[in-house]
Structure prediction request, 372 residues.
Amino acid sequence: MTTPPIYVTRPSIPPLSDMLPLLTQIWESRTLTNNGPVLQRFEAALADYLGVAHISLVANATLGTVLAMQQAGLTAGEVITTPFSFVATAHAVRIAGATPVFADIDPVTLNLDPAKVEAMITPQTRAILPVHTFGTPCDVDGLAEVAARHGLKLLYDAAHAFGVQRDGQSILRHGDMSVLSFHATKVFNTFEGGAVIARDHETKLAIDRLANFGFADALTVEAIGTNAKMHELSAAVGLAQLCGIDDVLARRAAVAQRYADRFNGVPGLRCVCPTGVKGHNHYAFPILIGPDCRVDRDTLFVHLEAENIFARRYFYPLISDLTPYRSLPSADAAGLPVARDAADRILCLPLYPDLEPDSQDRIIDLVLAQCG
Ligand code: T4K
Prediction:
């Protein structure tokens, strides 16, 4: 008998009973989008939960990043970013009109290495766009120093970083702006969605305008905006999700800890994200398969797949190896040895709040049987 498939993630969804009053309100008001009342409630509740003052809700993180780039004036020049990310990171730079420049990553956090960033700065450099990969905070102090020293903007792709804290404060407070994703696969989802976190109210209003075609009021269009609005249904999902988010985060932490405990001390198998650290969100459970393991990453990946376990190789291939980017000078593999090594050895194991302990133990046993 075949076992049911286990995917790398399974979205958390609120109880339907929590949705019904919100849906009733939307149905009765017939306000479906364009800064409706549910969106306004969600925006305020979210700012409160995250501990940040200025949030603009948007349709997804890709568009949110494009708008943040546009608002920061990054429509030309070079933006230094990581090749070890989802392709949307570089696409946003390109769509905004700038050119991505890839710098190498830190071997422990797999986030941009500030020293490698500094080495890539040219007279054309305008900004840095790091990613808090898998919810592990970047070296925000090191990156802020590099940005300040060279007069660069610092925008964070915080797609993975919902609820992440450092020193008891939201990681979203760092940089000029941060962008969250609320895609179905994320720690916190609104089916599709995202948010731009700004440092001041003026910037928040400017992002809101850009997300609404550039309208400043009914008759005034100030900029070439797009349609990146979040609609009322997504906002309703978000509002209902907030009620259960602490439980979601606690259950993710428990799943991550179970993996970490069983993999502890296995030669050649490194758990990338810390466990037992307050303020991590356990976005994923990436492991790095080293030469001491009996099998390589791809053999393990295929073996798990044959057992109906769908782990994912996030982020392989590197963005710098994808067709739209591979001809850039900074895409040369020689300059990105750490990122390349990580991309070749990474495997994200299933992690979601309701992953059954029996299923998780089966995954762990299969991994240990291959690697141990
Ligand atoms: N920056 C970073 C660093 C990102 O990782 C992302 C997105 C972005 C920016 C852009 O954010 P958004 O513009 O999307 O807000 C997924 C997601 O589509 C993508 O949002 C995400 N990163 C990326 C890391 O993963 P795929 O193509 O690998 O996902 P998919 O559809 O294969 O889903 C993975 C598994 O999740 C499936 O095997 C089953 C499960 N799943 C998925 C969906 C969509 C469900 O159970 N239900 C679902 O509805 O890209």
Summary: The first helix runs from residue 16 to 29.
